[in-house]
Amino acid sequence: MRELHVSKITEAVKTLCMDANFYLGKDVEGRLKECLEQEESPTGKDVLRKIIENIDIGKDERAPLCQDTGYAVFFVELGQELRIIGGDFNESINEGVRQGYEDGYLRKSVVSDPIERKNTKDNTPAIINVDIVPGDKLKITIAPKGGGSENMSEVRMMAPAAGVEGVIEFVVDRVKRSGANPCPPVVVGVGIGGTFDKCAQLAKRALLREIGSVHVNPFYAELEAELLEKVNKLGIGPQGFGGRCTALAVHIEVHPCHIASFPVSVNMQCHVARHKEVIL
Length: 280
Ligand code: SF4
Description:
Elements: E1 2-5, H1 6-22, H2 26-38, H3 42-61, E2 73-79, E3 82-85, H4 89-103, E4 127-133, E5 138-142, H5 147-150, E6 154-158, H6 163-178, E7 186-194, H7 196-206, H8 218-232, E8 247-257, E9 262-269, E10 276-279
Parallel strand pairs: 1-3, 2-4, 7-8
Antiparallel strand pairs: 2-5, 5-10, 6-9, 7-9
Bound molecules: iron/sulfur cluster.
């Protein structure tokens, strides 16, 4: 069985925290440039130019793309033939977050208790989702999540009879009610099915998909395209100043569900759609 020392995980996580906050994915940048070409509103165009300029500043100066450097959310695929040695796995990730947020001068945005609200001062604990998979590798994906867009997210337990029309109505209305709050243009993650908790996670996982990719199931690929068109007709525009470009993409993830249930969730992601991965 292959072995991996926790120090390697900490080192990788430290780098991921900084890279995710400094460098936006090429897919997001490319789509923002397309939006700049398509946007008709002069103010909307101006905002998009500034967003693109901000990406270059992040790259050139290794500076965070936003002052909200996010809650450190991880999706981990742990190969069942891999043995983690030298310490506690969760702690190795938290230590990487501690070091990455400190060395990268990234804002610490976590409070230890939701009522008491004392800052933990090191951006821990991270949220760590682990899947056991075949193989002997460890894949770690970080998706630092800003509060502004997260706060506009919602899970709704719908009646199964609501059908696809109910999904469309809910998703478009959720984006409409969000207005400028999630810092558009947004990526809209949609979860359909599972249980209450699983559904929310589907919507978050949907945000990790590359922008420009389409759903493997043609039905959901069509639904994504329809939702994107409808959302972009809302006129919210870049940073809420009006325009065509309210969303960069709508991504759907689905899961089987109970015969009596029809959970649907929306996880909103701002234009700083950060995520980075590494395989150890
Ligand atoms: S929603 Fe995104 S762009 Fe807006 S403040 Fe939060 S992290 Fe920054």
